[in-house]
């Protein structure tokens, strides 16, 4: 199947398409400071392992999907995400206690889950089915939507405390730009629902977090005491 990049698209769409992989890599790089702190402190504290194991599984799905669709923008950017995910995962496990309640689950269970996704993806890709790419794409969409929506799990806390301090603004802005660029590329260039749907939803989720950050900021400021007369 020929890549859609070879077809004629408006210049602004082509620019977005060229920027989209770089934006995805920026998002993949977001956990780097956290892992650097783990390496420095030699402990994971109360941090969960799930973001890194899910990054590996999701990136692998999209690498295979990109290869099957002959879309270099997809497989190249997610290939970087896969390498980074493995690096994050390895460093986390190295400094995680054997019985950490915040993983969630054991390291072995995470490895089994990742192995299941990777093996299942390879079996689908190599199967004689007419369109295994559609199934792989659907699984990729599910992973993407889950990851993009996960920060909104703190929505109740933000509304109750009237503080959006738990929402990291740089990462949220990077996610917004990433989803916007991929949405434009998916709609006007690739014309691929498996690219369009998760990124449009991710854009909505990211914009919701931006709005919460603007509305609540880092919480109510303390009231100024009146000056003594």
UniProtKB/TrEMBL annotation:
Q: Where in the cell is it found?
A: Cell membrane; Golgi apparatus membrane
Residue spans crossing the bilayer: 12-32, 44-68, 74-90, 111-129, 135-155, 167-184, 196-216
Keyword Oxidoreductase in annotation: no
Gene Ontology, cellular component aspect? Golgi membrane; plasma membrane
Record keywords, A-Z: Cell membrane, Golgi apparatus, Membrane, Repeat, Sugar transport, Transmembrane, Transmembrane helix, Transport
Topology in membrane? Multi-pass membrane protein
Q: Which Pfam families match?
A: MtN3_slv
Q: Which GO terms describe its molecular function?
A: sugar transmembrane transporter activity
- The source's superkingdom equals Eukaryota
Keyword Transcription regulation in record = no
Kindly give the PANTHER family that the UniProt entry links to this protein.
RAG1-ACTIVATING PROTEIN 1, SUGAR TRANSPORTER SWEET1
Q: Which family does it belong to?
A: Belongs to the SWEET sugar transporter family.
State what protein this is by name.
Sugar transporter SWEET1
Q: Which organism is it from?
A: Phaeodactylum tricornutum (strain CCAP 1055/1)
| UniProt lineage | Eukaryota, Sar, Stramenopiles, Ochrophyta, Bacillariophyta
